[in-house]
Model the fold of this input.
Amino acid sequence: MDYLSEVSSERLRRDLFRLCRDPFSFRTVMYTIPWHDRNSLDEFDDFLVEELKQYAGDVVKYPYKVRPFRCDSSKPLHHWYSSPREDDPWYDANSILVTLPGSGSQSDEIIQLVSHKDSMSWINSPGAHDNAVGTVANMELVRILSKIKLNRTVRVLFCNEEHSPWHSLDMAKLAKSKDDKIIAVLNQDSLCGKSDEDAATGKKTFACVYSTPEGKQLAMAIAALAKELALPLDIIVADKVKVNDDDGSFIKAGYLTTVMNLGSFPYKDSQYHLPGDIPERVDIENLKLSTQLILAMILKIDKEGFQLVKD
Ligand SMILES: [Zn+2]
Done:
């Protein structure tokens, strides 16, 4: 069956606008929808769990505490976040973990998907590219993968990265402490976020970046697969060098076959971390192609595993 054609631009668009316009606008502890009694991140978590439960039997909320970043507009434009103060309040938040169990002999091997689901806590921004797009891509992947008989297990972490501290580090450490056999980690963050020039010319972009030699092999495999499938994506593979973001959390825990999928690198979205990061700017066709490529890679790893080449 042609699973790639299952990726629906209508659903991606619908979900994107649900996250960024109606009903949520923002997904942060710092914003509460008028007349509601819970913050928008808390409300969004319930929405996400309800949505995911339609497709997956194993959806678990991991509660923890976060603090919003403070806003320091004296810093460079895209980096106004600053650390919370000692006496700043803590809020309840959740990470959400979805497991789609494999039924083959290698079901102990896990393909780990990640996306942060929150929007910026220091400003009110819809956070369309950062990172509603990664969230809706992973939601769509859950829907499609839930209908496929998987050999290996696929796990999807929806975490928070625009609040402090990052829970992905704890989740990765927890996996390591249980000796979970995570064979590949794919972090979807800012898919199809690109320069205004590339947006104007309609260029479909995909950047797969790595911070380890093992991650490099995975990134190269993703680029090769895009070529093999003739997906009309302009792909770059790049060394991120820095072990950061939610993929970095898994690397720090010892899971080295890890990549981050985004739309450009270095990141070129002019509205990065600004209120102008709105859903109307998202290239849905590019988002669909990116989601298709990630789906294809998951299915390939599910079938063949991911063998590292020793040099
Ligand atoms: Zn961000």
